[in-house]
Amino acid sequence: MKYTAKRRLGNLGRGLILLIFMLLVILPIYWMIISSLKTNAEIINAQQVTYYPHQMTGENYTQLFKLYNYRQMLTNSLIVSISTGLCITLLSIFGGYGLARYSFRGKDTMLLFFLVTQMIPGILVIIPLYVIFSKLGLINTRLSLFFFYLIVNLPFCVITMRSFFERIPYTLEEAAYVDGCSKMTSLVRIILPVMFPGIVAVFVFAFIGAWNELIAGTIFINTSNLWTVPVGLKSLIGKYDVKWGVLMAGGVGALIPTAFMFAFMQKFVVEGLTAGAVKE
Amino acid sequence: MLILVLYLLGVALLCALGIWFIGRHSRHSRHGRFSHGKNPVRTHGTTSRRKNRPRLGVQRKSEPYLFLLPTLLLLLLMFGYPLINSFIMAFQNYKLTAPGKIYFNGLDNFRKLFGESDIWLIIRNSFIYVLISVLGQFLLGMTLALALNKKFKLRGLYQAIVFLPWSLSAFVIGLMHRWSFNGEYGVINDMLIKLSLISEKIAWLGTPGFSLAVVIMAMIWMGIPFFAIMILASLQSIPISIYEASHIDGCGPLRRFFQITIPYIKPTVIVTILLRTIWIFNSFDLIVVITNGGPANYSQTLPSYMYTKAFSSYDFGLASALGVLLMAVLVVYVTVFLKTTRYNKAGNF
Fold it and tell me: How far is the alpha carbon of B96 from chain A, nearest alpha carbon, in Å?
């Protein structure tokens, strides 16, 4: 009797904690979404803060597309993120395979090098890259962002891919060799289909990394028709006048693709995250 | 420019050497391998098997390098070269506004840097920001992970919601917090007044101390999922039989937690904390979005200050000097990291 009562209390406490964490996540997002649906007059009303839109409106969203060229921002972000994602996926398949299936001289150094690149502050690389890119005429092109996002996300993705490869038994490959497959064929026809979820997870990592980045975008791009979503929206934060309604609408638009990707791929992303960062 | 040319030559030379080396070792196998690749079905049979087998040993030596070559090349070119470059710029008078007047000026940049009145404030901010963010993320992440470490209905859905901040951009998160903590129209002030915890609206982002606190809160919000994911994964790797055995031996829940759970997850926790510390230290987009370092540098950290210095005054020399300072911190940190985690010995991460 005493035992079950104790257990019930424990469950209650656990439920309470879970509820608090959920509210902690949902409330700020809720606030963002309802702010984007309010009229400007309702948003900038210092006397009364409303907790749901008294006057629902889509004007912030129409303004975003009509006045601030949100479509172009979305297109730019998509172009950069998808190309980065695809390129990283391809490179990390090769790199991850090389690291998972071979032991070779310099492997430990290589892994250490990958780890160290993850610890270097981005801004330290951005400043000299700015000089280099401007010499090469890459400033103000989407290519500069592509290159930067590529190198920033690549090491982590290679390592993650490596642990996905390591989970596939080598005997599978051996069987393919015995049947007369070459390295490449067995990789493409046997192994990649098996680890398809891992590949998608790596693509999601790279995509989200590129989609969410702000700082390099503000530095490498300064023409408005090449702005990615965060960079374009940041330009709406003026010194004296901040268009909150439009900004919130833009923020909602920016979080939808990554949130959906994450929600659907949650299991594999979580697996990849733990595999890539720590390995016991 | 000369450095660039030299560097490129060096990289090209290394690559050429590598390719030559690989070519020498796998010359005989090349032809066979690629023709197999095109048409795997036909190579089925005893001859190909016999051909493949003895080659494998030779191929093994060069193949991993081939697989990793593109990645390594990209990283060396775009990480290695810029870092060398920024090291050199730190000792130069390098202003983008005066491109004709670039010359070495010794330690002038460093002197200028430490002559600035705000530098110690910024160093102090960086420490506070990193320390409290890591601590907050860890404690809350651990709580969440422990709460999640038991099956319940709809756990998958719950995780999808609670881990969501991981997938959001610092920009969007910054925006949310900036808007919620707005002094005039913000919801936080309104709630606090309604709960009568404060009597007047607080200008959160315009008050020294508070502005950094808001940034830290946003950072903690953003990082809880990562800690929770890591700790949950390691909690789930603890074999149940150990808990069962302890139960039979009459071990209470508190003792179980401290003597079984904690020792088991300790390695993961240490690695996660160390990785996160450096990541938090480096990331400053939240600061740029929420406060832009204000008021008067009270929420500025070293990397964000470097960004501001570089792209408001275009004094790349001074910014690079700050960068060298960061590199020094980094080197110390990496050494400590390797010592505590023995990463290099395991060769794994």
Answer: 9
Question: Mutating which of B33, B39, B71, B334 best tests the A interface, going by the most A Cβ atoms within 10 A?
Answer: B71
ipTM of the complex: 0.89
Residue B164 DSSP symbol: G
Domain with CATH 1.10.3720.10 in chain B: 119-299
Tell whether A86 lies on the interface with B, counting CB pairs under 8 A. no
Identify the pLDDT of residue B23: 52
Contact B78 A129 (CB under 8 A): yes
pLDDT for position A73: 92
- B292: CB partners within 8 A, 6+ apart: B308
pLDDT, average across residues B265-281: 87
CB neighbourhood size of B208 (10 A): 13
- Encode pLDDT of B77-99 as tens digits: 888 888 888 888 888 888 877 77
Question: How distant is the Cα of B118 from the closest Cα of chain A, in angstroms?
Answer: 20
Contact B150 A14 (CB under 8 A): yes
Place of tokens 């651990």: B142
- Tell if the CB–CB gap between A270 and B163 is shorter than 8 Å: yes
- What angle do the packed helices B170-180 and B210-236 form, to 10 degrees? 130
pLDDT (tens digit, 9 = 90+) per residue, A99-121?
888 888 888 888 888 888 888 88
What is the fold, at CATH topology level, of the domain defined by A60-277? MetI-like fold (1.10.3720)
* Residue B60, min C-alpha distance to chain A (Å): 7
Class for domain B119-299, per CATH? mainly alpha
Task: Search chain A and give the residue with CA nearest B275.
Answer: A119
> What is chain A's mean pLDDT, rounded?
87
Give the helix/strand (H/E) hosting B103. Answer: strand B103-104
